[in-house]
């Protein structure tokens, strides 16, 4: 009776019969404890399983509790609880017991689910030493490496199998191909497929991971080539192979191609599943085709498939992108009525669309709903508000949203700081942009080149030229090579300074251009010529083999003599030639260039 309850994962009934046995003055034995431990484990209640196992060990000792301990170990392993499984394995080994093949398989399965390759190697070698290695054990070890995306370790384990005279099967190679697909290593996937063919497994359903790997890399031509080869070789092609290409077409927003592959799947006798419809709806959402997205969802429901939150998010995204917030809200309500729980992505989609439509009231209401559902808003939900404030050149509003993030204990990311730096640059507050840059660095964030570039431009435009050069040096220290536009942002205001200040700073920037091998452009040449003179710039270019992009064009436009700042401003105020004839005269140098 207890084992029947255990197989049904009915913990309450199993405990009831255990108590009935003790009330009947029957002495509990190892089998009874094994049953109750197994029922607890099958009910996913590892705490209760551990409680009963401790009672068993206290009453029956190590000898009488070996079977129950193995049951707890296997249950924890199969549920992916590596820590608990390893604890009971260590207890068995300390008791002088030997683990069997089932226990090792459970340990390797737990290592696979937790993606712990170190534990997988340890228990695989332990099983090898004790002679408990069999095909299923080896496959579990390969799966551990595959789930972690460790292609090299998975391949190494295949060689260990062969050294132990264990012949790999279809599952072994699927693990290898899955690891290569996760790592998006197409070359490794193709090599593993060749090995499988050499082992006589060319007609097994092992092409899907290779096709998926090529599709994930958006290398659709290669994916289609492998698909055609699989068809020619007579390999078994299931819906997963079709789904890989449909999903890849969906990622690039090619709805027509995704529909064609769906039709090919039907012609091959493969019925589309939930993944197929989700990919098609995602493609429709990217192309803002709300009608197609809704049609595919209705078709999926008619086929008896239950939509998940990912599919609902795609429908909401399609509606929100075209500004149809009423439909988006209706789909949201349908998801709730279907028992689906919205995710942060659901609210992020709605908030981003509302902000782009400049409907801040609606966006803030969705932000409040996110909190009402018990979800912790991430930086991605606040970033659209800060970005909109930056577009509107409202630095104070952007900073107020940042303060709200801090109050909610949301960790700002690089995108948030980038939006704040951009907002400060747009309103001409260079010091504020630099302050946000420094704060991001103090928070330990790895900023990109764009954040540094915007801060450099903001400082240069606000007149803090020396500080802008310092930030340019810091940008290089972080491993980023400045581009011509960042150099020009400093050179432009420098060229209008007095000669004493201008020449020294311009010379420093020229030295950095030479040292960092920056490819200057036409504007760089124009500003440097204005500051240092054409002869000095050409000499530096000749000595250090600098090539100015558009050098010949720049030479025609550059002034023949060094102009004073007043004269440069006067030339800038001159009316540029408009007619084609005036333009030709202007280019031949008969008129002063603006």
Strand content: under 5%
The total of helices stands at 35
Termini distance? 98 Å
Instruction: Give the helix/strand class.
Output: mainly alpha
Which segments are poorly predicted (pLDDT under 50) over 5 or more consecutive residues?
550-594
Report the count of strand segments: 0
* Biggest sheet character: none
Principal-axis shape:
elongated
Mean pLDDT: 77
Helix fraction, binned, reads over 70%
Radius of gyration, Cα only, in angstroms? 34 Å
Structure in words:
The protein is an all-alpha fold and 594 residues long. Helices cover 73% and strands 0% of the residues. It contains 35 helices and no strands. The chain has helices at residues 2-7, 11-23, 30-42, 46-64, 66-78, 82-94, 101-113, 117-129, 135-147, 151-163, 170-182, 186-198, 207-216, 220-232, 239-251, 255-267, 274-286, 290-302, 309-321, 325-337, 344-356, 360-372, 379-391, 395-407, 414-426, 430-442, 449-461, 465-477, 484-494, 499-516, 522-532, 534-543, 551-557, 565-573, 580-587. The termini are far apart.
